[in-house]
Write a structure and sequence with these properties.
The complex is a heterodimer of chains A (about 280) and B (about 280). With about 280 residues, chain A is α/β, with parallel strands linked by helices. Chain A is built from ten helices and ten strands. Chain B is globular and about 55 Å long. Classes of the chains: A alpha/beta (about 280), B alpha/beta (about 280).
Amino acid sequence: MEDNILEVKNLKKYYPVKTGFFQKTSKYVKAVDDISFIVKRGRSLAVVGESGSGKTTLANTIMKFESITSGVIYFNGKLVNDISKDNIKNYRRNVQMVFQNPSSSLNPRKTLAQIIKEPLIIHNIGDKESRNKRVAELLSIAELPANFAERYPHTLSGGQKQRVGIARALAINPEFILLDEPTSGLDVSVQAKIIKLLENIQKQYNLTYFFITHDLALVRNFAHDAIVMNEGKIVERGNVDDIFKNPTDSYTRKLIKSVPVVGPEEEAYINSIII
Amino acid sequence: MSMSENRLLEVNNLCISFKVDDNLVPTIKNVSLHIDKGECVSIVGESGSGKTVTCRSLLGLVPMPPGVFTNGSINYGGMDLTKITDKGWRKIRGSEISMVFQDPMIALNPVYTIGKQMENVYIYQGKSSIHSKLDKKTSVLKKEAKERSLHLLEKMKLPDPEGMLNRYPFELSGGQRQRIIIALAMIHTPKLLIADEPGTALDVTVQSSINEELKRLVKEENISMIFITHNLGVAKDVSDRIYVMKLGEVVEEGKTDEVLLNPKNEYTKSLLEALPRVTGK
């Protein structure tokens, strides 16, 4: 059964720009400007855009890292706006995030076991023994060797670090995972493996992904639905196949055209798109 | 040793090892490659394949020790670059062979304006210190530097080049900084430019336009280019020929189109397969 796990309506996030001696608000930067969309359970929604298009701000408001200017967010039919600071933990029990830069999002002074265990401790799940068991389980889900548990992040490669980030996000069995450009710092061959892993995990645990990226070729292969953002607004939305078959917005076409391609088939496709 | 007229640089059976706890770890194994005048060549490989070490050795930027040349030679203009002294490098770096580094955020000095940095490189590149004797009056050199800087900034399609000279790096976006770094590397019209993944830290649209401008500029100025990347799609856009590296060895080489359409090596095939396609799986 398909239902809506996340529903966003008329979301706005404005940042005031303060100028002059009295720090008067002269204008606003419209980072997210009147955005509405729906994420269906068990599917992946890709949010595509360049830096500065507002996609990370959008993610931050969904995670409740930042307040919103106006609009509503429903998660599982419940209003997210109202959630107070005390209840935020409950909300994040179901909503987790994999961060962009795996090197800076893992604490260098903790072992992998400690890093992966942390969400369990914060959410007060299980005892010492069951937590250790869960760590071993998560390492194997992330396809990392079991003896990595006592290692420190600096001994890992970029791809391995991102696997740890994924294991940590999975630790408390969330329904919804926000992926903020999870492969942008990685080699293409490592990226392919991480994407494969994410796909397998999604099927196995019926997860919903909210996937932020600027790589359209990746969207084509990984996501079910996509929205394209430019200057805080959604300029294109829909099923990924439809968007690629018939991109209606000129900005989307520009993005598709700048994807580096190798094969003749792809080249023909890129050339068929006119800006 | 004979090199054909058109040959700019030739690497023959280069081996570089690194000393780790009294053991020599071979890192570059029998790498041979060459580049002709006016040619663009890509070196493609994953991180750890040795592509960056190979290119850094062309500029004498591999720290020695711990690095050691165990075999081979790098022939450039009748010299063997594996045997050049520090003083000799000063005449080559920047003016003969130049490099664009990967991360535009850390390659510029934050406390000088763009104009000042370009001027300093123009005037002092190749000099042993700021007290070295200059060939012309400083005021003349400064004027020349400004002219050359403006010309290059314009070519790199930076808006308002004149105003750009008075700006500081923090005022600029990543794409703008990378364009300035490319202009800096070309200020003395080197014969060879090494570009180490200049677009990876940037957005796709910015990356494709920077590669486009870089390609055009090296052709116009008749500069040869070695382009380092892990993305075969990017390599296709910029280069005439490709070398594929894996674990310190060149596993495949050839004309760009031939390698991409008809890869012979298993590793090249796997790199191609890893690339997500815009046309779907």
